[in-house]
Design brief:
The protein is α+β, with helices and mostly antiparallel strands and 76 residues long. It has one domain: Metal Transport, Frataxin, Chain A (2-Layer Sandwich), CATH 3.30.920.30. 38% of the residues lie in helices and 26% in strands. The chain has a three-stranded antiparallel sheet with strand order 2-3-4, with helices on one face. Strands 1-5 form a two-stranded antiparallel ribbon. Strand 2 and strand 3 form a beta hairpin. The longest helix is centred in the N-terminal third of the chain and has 10 residues. The chain is globular and about 35 Å long.
Length: 76
């Protein structure tokens, strides 16, 4: 398994919106996303900073995707 990619918060939000997640609100620098089937997560957006690999792993678990599925979404 390769290392997790380094992504910014805005990139992660765009990827999740591409698979049906909707931005339900934003409080400060945190964007709350929810899928119609009930899955939800929070993505921090800080200008000039990337999301840490551990947090990215947590976001992927929250949205119930496998690592490989997420990598495939990035490559699209």
């Amino acid at each position: 398994m390769t290392k997790f990619p380094i992504l910014g918060g805005e990139e992660v939000v765009k990827i999740l919106q591409g698979i049906g997640f909707e931005k339900i609100r934003q409080k400060g620098s945190h964007v709350y996303l929810k899928h119609p089937d009930g899955r939800c997560t929070v993505v921090p957006i800080h200008k000039g900073k990337d999301i840490d690999r551990g947090l990215l792993r947590k976001i992927i678990r929250d949205v119930e995707l496998s690592y490989q599925d997420f990598i495939n979404l990035i490559q699209k």
